[in-house]
Amino acid sequence: MKQLEHKLNRITDDINEIISNQQGVGVSVAIVKDSESIYSKGFGYSQIQPVNRSIDGDTLMSIQSISKNFMALSIMQLVEKNLISLNHTVVKYLPYFRTKNKQQSDTITIQHLLSHTAGLPSNLGIANMIAPNVREIFSDTLTEFQEALDYYNLTEEEISSIQTRDDITKWFKKVELEYPVGMGWNYCTDAYVILADLFEKVTGRNWEIFLRDEILIPLNMDRTTSDSQKVEKDMNSAKYYLGEAKMKLLFLKTQSQLLLVTCIQQQMI
Asked: What percent of the chain stands above pLDDT 90?
């Protein structure tokens, strides 16, 4: 027991040193052993504007792509109930799913989507660009939102036309696979939106409600939620801040943009 306590104290000291050297604003750390939490601490701040707020073990933080674990768990529960099979093709459940080459995409299975082996590109960006706060995310410069659209080869009209998950599934008809199905690996965030669509079509249930009622509540995860508005209103939630390197890059981009605006104004005068 003393040996474990010593190890945990060393972890605390190491993280405190990292934070004190200004290598981050704040961090929350938890360690689970044998299904029990043996360590849960916050270091630094969850927010530094307008005032500093300390992070603790209950601070709400965005789990980003860890949400894929919950989606995969939901799919596997359907497999256990014999409602679906991992080897079944996606079109068996979502007949409107296809990529640019329908013959290829008709062979994509649920397992291919789960394991990122479907042949889909990794930088599609459609799931990111339809986020409710996407314009706030890409607002560091006057042109950053348009730059993001250009990077993903998307248009404003295209993303505004997407209202549901099956709209995203249907959007994949423009996508060209980068390698034969099952013959490579590409991490594809957007593929998991298709899995969510498939889950809802098979069960007839909203996935977020299922997640809350069938996974989070039974596990007593009362500080975990898929409701972004609830998180934003919670006083004990973390904000995100850019590192020094990113700030320097944004400063240069902003200066260039201001110069461009000045030139335009001079031309107008």
From this structure: 60
What is the Cα 147 distance to its own chain's centre? 20
Task: Tell me, letter by letter, the H, E, C secondary structure of the chain.
Answer: CHHHHHHHHHHHHHHHHHHHCCCCCEEEEEEEECCEEEEEEEEEEEECCCCCEECCCCCECCCHHHHHHHHHHHHHHHHHCCCCCCCCEHHHCCCCCCCCCHHHHCCCEHHHHHCCCCCCCCCCCHHHHCCCCHHHHCCCCCCHHHHHHHHCCCCHHHHHCCCCHHHHHHHHHHCCCCCCCCCCCCCCCCHHHHHHHHHHHHHCCCHHHHHHHHHHCCCCCCCCCCCHHHHHHCCCECCCCCCHHHHHHHHHHHHHHHHHHHHHHHHHC
Average pLDDT of each block of 10 consecutive residues along the chain (269 residues)?
A: 90 90 83 91 88 89 88 97 98 98 97 98 92 79 90 94 95 97 96 97 96 94 86 83 53 40 33
